[in-house]
Design brief:
Strand content: 5-15%
Radius of gyration: 23 Å
Distance between the termini: 44 Å
Strand order of the largest sheet: 4-3-1-2-5-6-7
Structural class: alpha/beta
Number of domains: 3
Shape: elongated
Largest sheet: 7 strands, mixed
Number of helices: 8
Number of strands: 7
């Protein structure tokens, strides 16, 4: 039994180290709050933890029989490690393709933009026409303003296309502008917690309690919802400076 437990411990330590490096890198680079929440990546992390920290070491505990030859034991553990690596590559690829690149304000709302939301052609156009705000492989999440183009025909084309499932302006980084340039327009759309339309009564009460716990006013028109698919968080601004004071989840 001691042999099995030693093999289990070594496998668990190695798997934990590899998983920590991968998930830690993604968290530090792209998935800090609210990125991981809005991008809904917990199911991917759950798969990685289940395979690499639970299934892999447990199978090693089962197959690590001291009566086996070294060749047999090496073969069995190699098969287990191969499955783990496949899961790790799948998870890392999924996290990479879904990494948050922008937190955008456009027209009257805040939304997250992930790498998978951008088409290759729009990325190429942005690097040519708007390189300062274009996405590159090393780009970290940025807060930006995504106004409709000044050309009415272009703007109408984007709006019309969006109604029929086409790309929205937040998926066209060639039109992006610095965050601070859009703050005057953003200020016009701020609401109080009570007047927001997409939180129920219980969620609003939790949000107001969290604001109070942070010493922030709960009755000012200083908030806006940020969307990420079906998920949403409340972004709280300082009305004097328009800096982000807090980002709160409704759960």
């Amino acid at each position: 039994m001691r042999f099995r437990l030693t093999a289990f411990g070594l496998h668990l330590a190695g798997s934990g180290a590899a998983l920590t490096v991968v998930l830690g890198g993604f968290w530090l680079g792209w998935y800090r709050w609210p990125g991981w929440y809005l991008a809904s990546v917990l199911h991917v992390v759950g798969i990685l933890v289940a395979v690499d920290l639970v299934l892999g070491p447990t199978l090693t505990l089962i197959v690590a029989n001291p009566a086996k030859t070294r060749r047999e034991l090496t073969r069995d553990i190699a098969i287990i490690v191969t499955v783990q690596l496949a899961a790790l590559i799948y998870g890392a690829t999924t996290l990479w393709l879904g990494r948050p690149l922008y937190y955008t304000f456009s027209v009257d709302r805040l939304e997250i933009v992930q790498a998978s939301d951008l088409k290759a052609g729009d990325v190429v156009a942005a690097r040519r026409e708007n390189p300062a705000l274009a996405p590159f492989w090393y780009s970290r999440p940025r807060w930006i303003w995504a106004p409709l183009p000044e050309n009415p025909e272009e703007a109408q084309k984007i709006v019309g296309g969006t109604l029929f499932g086409g790309a929205d302006v937040i998926q066209m980084p060639r039109y992006f502008r610095p965050w601070r340039q859009g703050l005057a327009q953003l200020r016009q759309h701020l609401e109080t917690v009570d007047t927001t339309k997409f939180f129920n009564r219980a969620e609003k009460q939790r949000l107001k309690s969290r604001l109070a716990a942070r010493g922030l006013p709960a009755g000012e028109a200083n908030t806006m919802i940020m969307w990420g698919g079906s998920r949403r968080v409340l972004v709280v601004f300082d009305l004097a400076t328009m800096e982000v004071r807090a980002i709160l989840g409704p759960d």
